[in-house]
Amino acid sequence: MTDNTQRPFSGPTDSTPELPTQYTPAEVEGELYERWVERGYFEADAKSDKPPYTIVIPPPNVTGSLHLGHAFQHTLMDALTRRKRMQGFEALWLPGMDHAGIATQNKVEQQLAEEGKSRQDIGREEFVQRVWQWKEEYGGKILGQMRRLGDGVDWSRERFTMDEGLSSAVQTIFKKLYDDGLIYRAERIINWCPRCLTAISDIEVDYQDDDGELVSLKYGEGDDTVIVATTRAETMLGDTAVAVHPDDERYRHLVGRRIKLPLTDRTIPVVADAHVDPEFGTGAVKVTPAHDPNDFAIGQRHGLESITVMDERGIITVHGPFQGLDRFEARSAIVGALREQGRIVAEKRPYAHSVGHCSRCKTTIEPRLSLQWWVKVEPLARAAGDAVRDGRVTIHPKEMEKRYFDWVDNMHDWCISRQLWWGHRIPVWYGPNGEQVCVGPDEQPPTGEGWTQDSDVLDTWFSSGLWPFSTLGWPDRTADLEKFYPTDVLLTGHDIIFFWVARMMMFGLYAMDGVVPFHTIALTGLVRDEFGKKMSKSNPNSVDPLDWMNAYGSDAVRFTLATGANPGADVPIGEDWVKASRNFANKIWNATRFALMNGASVEGPLPSQAEMSAADRWILSRLNLVVAQVDAYYEDFQFAKLSDALYHFAWDEVFDWYVELSKTTFQAGGEPAEVSKRVLGEVLDVTLRLLHPVVPFVTETLWTALTGRESVVIAEWPKDSGFRDAAAEAEIAEVRRVVTEVRRFRSDQGLQPGQRVPARLTLDGTLLTPHETAIRQLLRLQPEGEGFHPTATLPVAGALVALDLSGTIDVAAERKRLTKDLTAAEKEKADTTRKLGNEAFLAKAPEPVVAKIRARLATAEADIARITAQLAALPQG
User: Does this model's pTM top 0.70?
Assistant: First the structure.
């Protein structure tokens, strides 16, 4: 299993480094990372004949900083890429950032506001220059934090969604979609943010239950009266109809007639439309085509006028007493005016109902009729669905497929224009006589008097939807595109299936002639606190991962996140868990340091099986099994399981058992010691390589110290040799069983771990015979001497362990303590038995309470059995 292909250290690092007594992550992590980058370990070669393996990073916002969600996904992507690199693939993990249109523009507008200016004051060109300056000065903070985490990305290929190449790709695909009739301009109802002053897509709207009011209004007079209900009374100024169901007998006489609209000098028609639910409310609905998507559809079907009643900031524009009021002020004023006219039939306040909010600034969204640019998604979405259905793309875990299909199979046309200045400007020019020209990146825009470019920019998700192929050089057929496309794995959170994953699928299949953008979509859950609650900046449970990295090291944070990474499931994390991972790193350090101090070696071939002890053969058998398990878990994206397997193998089997068993061999010396030194070196070499993708820093330090070779980053990934030794595994299992049982007994008797006890071991006829010296050393058992008087005999695994405890414990005091504990356990049993026998109590108590009492009873019964056995084992007299 040992990799002998690397060169040894050269220059100032000729000698094998001496490990300090303690591992201090802060002293090694930064230096190691810069060394990796300088040596080009993470740079991929498009001319290589190695098989490619590609992951493109979900581009973080240029305004962002590293949060635990980033750290989580980056840890997993880094682990995948590092392993593939070690397996001999030409691995490319491509980094970059998103220009984050709204978020970045808001940052610069805040700066201007502090100067007493607005973007309109300085004009578009200067404003865009200010954004670029902000990006250079403040943007990209997260890139440095990625280095701190240990991200093995190819920095030579770093991209930005507004760089020259990606801007060309955006313009190219816009032109192609436009020419193919898949991009169009139309007036539709969109989600409008009166704070950000732009349209936003459906998936950028967060819905929550707000307390509002439900007001029932009386339209018309006398026999022409209709009652309608609304939570947005201000929109009634733009009503252009009342709609009822065609089969509703209550309103049949009104269909086709016009009725008076209160507070206005207008009359509006009553129309029959099957969209109306006659069972809901009064069965009649007000229709405001300019301010509601369903009403807009009714208006289209019936040729209704669309009247916009408020401007882009939510200010009422309709002439009259409400003109100039904010929409919420107008709501109260209009309800008051209707109340004065006796038009209010009923009011329900508070009335909890679902209200859309801008995901960026949390402002209440206003549905608004607006002229915007749209992508006709039906053929694109169908192709994206087919690619998963026919197996070209695999979604992992499979149960997430339903969420994907629910989205792509029911997708509405996508509004891609945004009323911002920062972003990819829509490449369409309008002429003085109504001309409209779409211009590609290599085409000259029309010139002359009266020609102007569209002022809107594209939705940020439009450019990031091109990420898997635009970052590799598309639309040019570059060497990178030929080598590294399609990418292998898209690893991202299930929460952005709609934002990003579906967009990349649609655009990738469209731009790349049906070739999928990635083979596998590996979806993760979200990081939550240790109690399962969502983390956010507004909650006190929010954690800056850099604080934990500073305190415990990046490896500890990475390992903690990986151990919680079950496919598609949310990941709870707490500081105590990070401390435990730090302890694991320390355990690896101490075990390797012990091995080096005792001459563990990786040089030369492994000794023959005949030369090995049972412990040697056992640990190599277990090692190969773990290699096979870890490989299987990686292929199935089971990061939690592979981390758990490595943790328990390294800590429980290598460090706690093999290293301890080796101490006896090392002390005895001779050829068996030399064999075990080579085996211990092999086991640590392979274990460190298996751990490296998840905990890269400590493993790099230890592996180079152990092997004297250049770097574990470019070491060969271990392979399962197929070696298994069931007999050795059974033999060591018996040793572990005896040691564990006697240790438990010693603990029950109150003996200190290091306290020596005289003992007689009867091992004849068992697998334990060759291991008496090791068993005695592990259990701190002295040979029986004169006056040996066994006070307890333990039959374990066919052997007998007789112990003389007469001089090691105060028997009277121990009997008194145990008797007291037994009395308490018996009282607990009686109390819980009485409660569980009370039928009245069981009938009223909640099930969790009853379950807790049953658990207390079970614990009490177990305690009674344990203490009784301990009392029986005490010396008599």
Answer: yes
